[in-house]
Amino acid sequence: MTISFDWLKTLFPTSLPAAEVGALLTGSGLEVEGLHELESIPGGLRGVVLGTVLTCERHPDADKLSLTTVSVGDETPRQIVCGAPNVAAGQRVVVALEGAMLHPSQGEAFKIKKSKIRGAASEGMLCAEDEIGLGQSHAGILVLNTDLPDGTPAAAYFGLGSDTVFEIGLTPNRADAASHYGVARELRALLGQPAHLPDVSAFAAPAAGENISVTLEDDQACPRYAGLLLDNVQVGPSPEWLQRRLRSIGLSPINNVVDVTNFVLHELGQPLHAFDADQLAGGQIRVKRAEAGEKFVTLDGVERSLQADDLVIANAQGTPMALAGVFGGKTSGVSADTTRVFLESAYFAPAVVRRTSQTHGLKTDASFRYERGTDPYMVPTALRRAALLLQEVAGARVAAPVVDEFPHAIPNSQVRLRLDRVARLIGQEIGPERIREILTGLGIKIEQEISAQGQAPTWLLAVPPYKVDVTREADVIEEILRIYGFNNVALRPHNAASFLSPFPNPDPEVVRQKVASLLSGQGFSEIITNSLTNAQYFEQATAPDEALVRILNYNSQDLNVMRPTLLHSGLEVVRHNLNRRQRDLKLYEFGKTYQRTAAGKYTEKTILSLWLTGAASAETWQHPTRKTTFHDVAGAAQQVLAALSHAQASPQPTQHAYLAGGLTLLAQNQPVGNVGAVSPAVLKRLDVSQPVWYAELDWDWLLKKYKASLTARELPRFPEVRRDLSLVVDQGVTFEQLRTIAQRTEKKLLQSLNVFDVYEGPNLGAGKKSYSVSFTLLDPSQTLTEQAIEQTMQRLIQQFEKQAGALIRK
User: Fold this and answer.
1) Tens of pLDDT along 234-255?
2) Strand order in 549-550's β-sheet?
3) Cβ count within 10 A of residue 543
4) For the chain, does the N or the C end have fewer beta carbons within 10 angstroms?
C-alpha cells in the first residue's frame, strides 16, 4: 500500500519528519517497507530561478538570436544568448543557471553549461515551459507576472515541492488502515492528536427530484447501499492537483469522474463506482444474486460466465451492470459522452466479494478492501465527499436526494475487558488512564465500567465495525500493546524463553554432506583411498624427503609412507578405471594428508581433492563431446568455494611440484588450494595414459571460515548497462590482472566483468593477445546516464593503458 505524506497531512496535520512518522507506524504494526522522495517534476527545478531581462539586443552574428543581460539576484548580471522570438527587455523570466539539470517534457535531460554561441558567451538559458517540464509549449520563453525578487527559486514560484511516499506492507487483518484516513487514525492513537475527516458540510441535495430507485434483494450480502444522481457532468481531464495526488501513489489519471472515485477510495478507504445513469434501463438499481451461467462483459472487455453465488448490481430488467464490489460492466461505465452519473457507495459482505473475486480471477483496489472489511458508516461520508469533488472538477449538479438503503444497522462489537488481564498478557502494569487514552484514540468506546469488591475492574467496550479483527478480549489487549509500544515493555531479569539460538560452529558432517551433494549432483563420484602410499612417488618432488611421514614397520614397499597429498592415491583410481576402458572420470575425495615439520612434529590436514579426465560430457546427437579442460576443474572448485559462502577466489600463477601450469587459489588473501594439469612426469610414473586435471582445497581452513548465514540485498530498481572493450595486451598479462585493475578503478558502478573471447594470431603481432571483455554497470540510486557511462569507461580505458599497457581495439 502506498501513502503520500503530503496527502496524509491534510487529514492529520503534523510537523514531524517523514522518517519519524514511518518509524512510529512500523512500531505499531504498519510496517513501512520503504520511504521514497517524489518530485512534482524530475529534478525539482534545482538551479532554476526567477530573473529580469535588463537589456536585449540582436546578436551581431545571428539574425534569429538575441544577446541579453539578465539579473538573477547576484551583484553581476548574466549575459545569456536567447533564440526565443518573444524575449524583450523588462520581462520577468525563468533562468536556468550554469550547472542546472533540466528535464524537458520530451527528450533527454540535459545540463546547462557555460558556452559560446556564435562567438558570444552565454551564462545560462532563458526557459520555455517545455524545457523545464511544465508543459508542451515551445513558442517562446515563459514571461511571468510576479513581484518576487530576482533569484527566487522557480520551484517556489510554481508551487512545486517534493513529497515523501510510504510503502506500507499492509497485513490482511489491518483493513482499517487501508487508506490515508486509516493511517491518520493510527497516528491519532499513537500521538494523541485529532485526525480530521474531509469537510462535507457544504454538501446539499434537493428535497425531491427524478431519482434512481434502489432495491436490496439480498440484504445479507449487501447490508447497506447508498447512491446519488448527478447531472450536468462534463467528463474530461482532471485538474493538476488531482492528477498529482493520484500519481503520488502510483495511479494513472483517467478522467475527472473516475479519478474522483479513485481519490476518495484511497483517501477514506470506501470504494465507489460511477454508472452512466442513462445506461441504467428502467431507472432502477437491483442488488441481487446472478443467474447461474449468465453472461456478463466487464470493463476490460472480457465476457464472463457468472455463478449463482455472485452478487451483481443490475438494472430494472435484472441485467447485470457490475459485479458488486469487484468490477464494473462495459455497457454502464462512464464515457466521454456521459452527462448524468449515478454514484454508488455501498457496504458488501467480505465473504461474498472474496468468493466472486477468486472465482473470476479479478483483483481490484475495491475488492482488496471489501474482501477484508470496510466501514459501513463511512458510506454516506464518502458519497458526499465525491459529490463535492465532482461539483468542483466536473461542474456536476446534485439532481436528486441521496438514496440510502440500510435496513438493519450494523452494531458495534461488544467486548469485555478485564484490566488485570491486560497486565497479565502484556507482562507489565499499564495504568487505567493510559489504557483509556489508547482505547479512545483507537475509536473504541468504554460503555460501562464494572467494579466489584475484591476484583479487578472490568470495562464493557464498543468496538466500531471498521476494526474487523478486534472481536475478543485478547484482540483488544493486542491493540493496547501495539499503541503502547512493544519497546516500552521491560524485560525482567528472570525471564526465560524456549528458543535456542544457532550454534556458531557448524556441524562439520552437515557441511561436508552439503558439498558432497553439490559435487555428486554435477556428476562427480566420491572415492575413498588408502592413507598409506609409496615413497617412490615423491623421489623427484621439490619437497624435502624429511617432510615424509615414514612407516617404521611397513608390510609392503608400496605402502611405506603416510600420504602428503591425495593426488597419487586418486591417480591410482584413475589408472584402475582406464585399464578397464572407463576413460571419462570425475572423482572427488575428502581425505587426510600427513607431513612432518622441520621441528620434528607431525601435522594432519583434511583436503578435498578433485580429479577430471576424458570427456566433459557424454556424446549425443545434439552435442558433440569435448575434452575436459582446466576451466572444468577450476569451475568445480569455485562452486565449492561459493557453496561455503566464500567470495570468488583469485587465481595466482605458481610453481607446483606435481602440476604443470598450476594456479594457487586465494580467498581472503589466504592460499586455500591449487588447480592445474597433473604434470606428464607424474602421469608417466603412475602409468596414467591420458591427461588429468586436478584440484585440491584446504578443507580445514574452508570449514573454519564457513558462514552458514545468508546475506540478502535489495533487488536493483534501476536497469544495468553492458559495455564491451577489446584489449590487446602482452602475452604475460592475465585476465585476473585486468579484473583487479578494473575493480580498483571503479568501485561504485562496476558490478561485474567477464571475458567472452580470447584471440591470438599474427594480426596482433608477436607476443600479443586480445581479450574481449564485457563490463556490467549499475547505479543502485538512479538510472545511469550516457555521460556517467562514458566517463566510467574512459577511466577504465586510461587505467588499462597505464597499468597493463593495453591497446584498445576500435
Assistant:
1) 999 999 889 888 988 888 889 9
2) 532-533, 561-562, 549-550
3) 13
4) C
